[in-house]
Amino acid sequence: MEIRSDIEIAQAAEMKHINEIAKTAGIDEKYIEQYGKYKAKIDYNLLYDRKDVKDGKLILVTAISPTPAGEGKTTTTVGLADGLKKINKNVVVALREPSLGPVFGVKGGAAGGGYAQVVPMEDINLHFTGDFHAIGAANNLIAAMLDNHIQQGNSLGIDPRKITWKRCVDMNDRQLRFVVDGLGGKPNGTPREDGFDITVASEIMAILCLASDITDLKNRLANIIVGYTYDDKPVTAGQLKAQGAAAALLKDALKPNLVQTLEGTPAFIHGGPFANIAHGCNSMIATKMARKMADYVVTEAGFGADLGAEKFLDIKCRMGEMKPDAVVIVATVRALKHHGGVAKEKLNSENLAALEKGLPNLLQHVENITKVYGLPAVVAINAFPTDTKAELDLVEARCRELGVNVALSEVWAKGGEGGIALANEVVKLCEEESNFRFAYEDDFTIEEKIEAIATKIYRADGINILPAAKKQIDKLEELGFGKMPVCMAKTQYSFSDDAALLGAPRGFTVTIRNIKVSAGAGFIVALTGDIMTMPGLPKVPAAERIDVDETGKITGLF
């Protein structure tokens, strides 16, 4: 059998017109703003008009700690939605938009894989409907207005040494992490240290994804803290009078994007915060809109359950007053063997000892979901041809010891047909009673919230808050931000803050080196280890393989 690449499969698909997909989702034509034949923005007024419609079941897809072997979380999410459609369920999938940084960096495309993809795959992975460009423009407008305010007399008394607002660009570019700008004399601004974040790590991205409507968006933009005065008082974007213009730039970006899976299942793809340095979930508006249009909504949260799912549950569900009806935890036998110490080139050989050693990573994620958060869960084993029956049986046995079922997912090779077993399990889970709770309460101090996440979710012995971070916590609590949830910025490769500690490590502490407030987004960011908000390109970037021919056909996206 010929094995085709993801992009070849996607390009061979016969897509339905976006109006037909909207009709499948029950969306009236008056809400549709077409971007060509296969993409559309959906007017957020649809949410107001359907506010009395009962919400559909919410299914969260998460995963074990990621490895170079890959887990296939987006592939599973898309395949599960198609599997639910195969068993005649009314379903919509809700995903994040890919960032250009990983597309041109290590990861390549992020629209699913094999026969479980969202299309048009090239558009989704590249500029799509321009949302990220709008977010970058709004971010950089605030930066420009901030520096202009200082240049034009600085009536607010902003201290150029205490500016916290960075510029952003949606590209991996380590050269921009730390820059000095405003050089060249008085007409060219005030010289100062500056820097860039990748757009998906920006507070504007988080704000767009957590805003409930345009009014909420504008209020959140006004609350952004851009820096501090000479006497250490916070300065907001509202004081710069920047919120109206920034909201105008984001007016269309706030509208969810509608596309389709290879099997014609409606898919909302909207927003794209990273889960290791931001909150890692698609937009609140898209999730809520999907729930008004379908009986079942399948969504995902980035990276492992210690990052994306923790933030989905403790930040997004808290702010949006929602809870998942079921959680799917994706794992592969190959990745579990990697957590057990097997090198990437040897993962195709049966190794029950290494699998046994790597299984605690999966089991800790399962326990976190079922025991810390009190939610029903199923483990989805993303099948590879090299998996042996003995390996699959071992995973199933260990999960059953925790009272959790395992379903084999064959969606990469078979599309929705390969997701039917998982779909049936999820439908059953959605009917179970659950006792959902957060990992910490609102009235915990900032330090108590960080400690709760580190000890309950990561299983650390405790936290080590460096003196500079302790000072920042004291300042933020004094300013009244202590009730906000915490967004942990941590390596995705380990439960700990050390990427080299695989499996389910014990006997470690988590070091907090920096604390900042995203007052507009509504959360505190705690930076651990050497996590960076602007990635760099690898030695051989994926961009080297991407090309376009004379007909406009793109190759090399995988």
Describe the structure.
Helices cover 35% and strands 20% of the residues. The protein has 558 residues and is of the alpha/beta class. β22 (509-518) and β23 (523-528) form a beta hairpin. The mean pLDDT is 94. α7 packs antiparallel against α10 (243-250), α13 (333-339) crosses α14 (352-372) and α14 runs parallel beside α15 (389-400). The relative contact order is 0.16. The chain is built from 19 helices and 25 strands. Strands 1, 2, 3, 4, 5, 6, 14, 15, 16, 17, 18 and 19 form a 12-stranded mixed beta sheet that branches.
What is the number of helical segments per DSSP (H or I, 4+ residues)? 19
Structural class: alpha/beta
Q: What coarse outline follows from CA principal-axis ratios?
A: globular
Strand content: 15-25%
Mean pLDDT: 94
Largest sheet: 12 strands, mixed
DSSP helix fraction: 25-40%
Distance between the termini: 19 Å
Radius of gyration, Cα only, in angstroms?
23 Å
Task: Count every beta strand, where a strand is a DSSP E run of 2 or more residues.
Answer: 25
Uncertain regions spanning at least 5 consecutive residues: none
Overview in brief:
The protein has 558 residues and is of the alpha/beta class. 35% of the residues lie in helices and 20% in strands. It is built from 19 helices and 25 strands.
Set down the secondary structure blueprint.
Layout: H1 6-12, H2 18-24, E1 32-34, E2 40-42, H3 45-49, E3 57-63, H4 73-86, E4 91-95, H5 100-104, E5 112-113, E6 116-119, H6 121-125, H7 131-151, E7 158-163, E8 167-169, E9 179-181, E10 192-194, E11 196-198, H8 203-210, H9 214-223, E12 225-229, E13 234-236, H10 243-250, E14 257-261, E15 266-269, H11 284-293, E16 296-300, H12 305-320, E17 326-331, H13 333-339, H14 352-372, E18 377-382, H15 389-400, E19 405-409, H16 411-414, H17 420-430, H18 446-457, E20 462-465, H19 467-478, E21 486-489, E22 509-518, E23 523-528, E24 547-548, E25 554-555
Helix pairs in contact: 4-17, 7-8, 7-10, 9-10, 13-14, 14-15
